[in-house]
Amino acid sequence: MTQKAKKGASKPRQFEAQVSQLLQLLAGALYKNKEIFFRELISNASDAADKLRFKSLSESETTELESELKIVITADAANQTLTIADNGIGMNETDLIENLGTIARSGTKEFLSQLSQTQAKDSQLIGQFGVGFYSAFVVSKSVEVLTRKAGESQGYRWTSNGTDAYEIEPCDVEQCGTQVILHLKDEEKEFLETWRIREIVRRYSDHIALPICLMEEKVPEADAATDVSDASDDAASEAAIKDADADAEKAADAAPVLEEVVINEAQALWRKPKKTIESKQYIGLYQHIAHDPEEPLCWAHHHVEGKLSYISLLYIPEHRPFDLWSREHRSGLKLYVQRVFIMDDAEQFLPMYLRFVKGVIDSSDLPLNVSREVLQETPHTVIMKNACIKRVLDMLTDLAKDQPERYQTFWDNFGAVLKEGPSEDPSNKERLMELYRFNSTTCEKDQQTVSLEAYIERMKPKQKKIYYCTADSYSACQSSPHLEVFKANDIEVLCLFDRIDEWLISHVSNYKDHEFQSVARGDLDFLKEDSEDKSSDVEAKKETEAASELEPLLKRIEEALSGQVQSVKPSRRLTDSVACLVVGDNEMSTHLQRILKEAGQAVPPSKPILEINPDHPMITRLKKETSEDQFSAWSQILFDQATLSEGGQLVDAARYVRNIDQLLRELSVSEA
């Protein structure tokens, strides 16, 4: 590329404030491996080439793709500059401002906070936050970008010293594409060494499917040997030697002749036979396509031939990206058709609950002018999607079976996402259920480690259902009054405190003939069966008499809480607490109601059932209360306490405080 700057056309511009902070942090040389900047800039150049290739196929008016797409690296020791150039899509002024003047992806503040708090681990963050270009300032005192966008005639020069401002000025650029010129710091001259550049490219970018060329000095061919065996030619020989010496002196004074030397294999890794690929090559490709410096948890590489021919290479990351739950999160596989890049984030080959999966899919059967709309309607896509889902689930199943500790790492990061599966992909519900892990009353901390298979193995002999409790947190779940009778009977209960859990349970009513049963919903069957087994006729008569004696109290409480409860019943769930709230078998749980209200959703009106513990001292005291006002206050306290124990919010918190104050005053007076 050549350029002619137009004087007076440049205009200083301020970086986005958060970019300025970022550059200050990068200037502190926080990276453990400085050469990471090479990988990021080469990856950007590769993406630019892929975009131009696709544009040339999808837009007939695009004529820029006239030469072979490639990346060229030039090291100029005399000027202490390193240039990484591509003949890809290029940028215009707007692109330069958006891509190099701001951090275009979400999560900027989170990135900055993590980077400043974990300076020793900063290289683990590079790429995950879309800040790859800025890594150039780790080794550079200033950076210059020369670029022209395909289909446009005007080129631009972007310059910055990596502090708080940058400049953009028009210039003439012969060819579309981008040159990133790094003016290296004095202590970073190692990146101008040919051997160092080759080493870095082979380590990080050997798999890239286009040539990466290094400009090296051309070695002149040796002159033909002069035959001096014949004495009669001595004079001619001496003249030839003198001429050769003179030519050598001229060559030494002239600038060296450079030539492009390809230093990578320039072959798509996924198209190679699996037996010829080393683990470090798979890892390198993952780091390139996922912009993740860490190694993947596992991967699966498949070549499919027959009526439908394609190659898939799927990776499961070890760490959760910062924007996994963001609406702007980009997911999907890199799509190639006959080795031609088509789409960067093809979402059609994996469902949303597998959005954390990275990888490549290369088909020989999809049309080259494929678009998102056509892709969704292609029958081949459905077949490939089902195959990709199967392979991901196979990977996870094998990981859970063979390496449970590594699977636990996966679950801690992506378990909540995987729980979206049954609603989106009912056909794989059983397979997904086998992969799920939950917390339970047998766990000593909030980590989800219990599989449904393990739960079923520990079920009591006559237990038919899988019991679960939902709450907003681990501690709230473990201290729920609904668990008291289960703990007393040593029955394990699953503790569900992920916000997705209620949605999950609504789509998986049973697992291997065992129905899911909420501890806060309806009657508990095991208590009925236990009562039938153990109660004699005399004991049954006593229970009936006790219930009839309690009936007037239940009606009084129900009248005092009119409009707030559906009914009031004696509880067999409680052993220590005074009261709890339950819902009917076909009603929405109070926990789900709260989640929907917080999300701004309309919730159908419903009233809970208040269950009281007949043996609790407070109920004994309530039986003796003659003042209707006092009785109403005590009843309201029962209801409010039951609401709070579930993690709910009181409609009238001030009323609850007044009632408690009144109760304490009464108790203090009676004791005096």
Descriptive notes:
By secondary structure, the chain is α+β, with helices and mostly antiparallel strands. It is built from 22 helices and 22 strands. Helix 1 (17-27) packs parallel to helix 4. The model is unreliable at 1-8, 27-31, 103-112, 114-130 and 223-232 (pLDDT under 50).
Brief account:
With about 675 residues, the protein is of the alpha+beta class.
Number of strands: 22
Instruction: Give me the Rg, rounded.
Output: 36 Å
* Biggest sheet: strand arrangement: 1-6-5-4-7-3-2-8-9
* Overall outline: elongated
Q: How many angstroms does the end-to-end distance come to? A: 96 Å
Major sheet summary line:
9 strands, mixed
The total count of helices amounts to: 22
Sheet-strand content, in percent, reads 15-25%
User: Kindly state the mean pLDDT as a whole number?
Assistant: 81
Helix content, binned percent: 25-40%
Coarse structural class: alpha+beta
Poorly predicted spans? 1-8, 27-31, 103-112, 114-130, 223-232
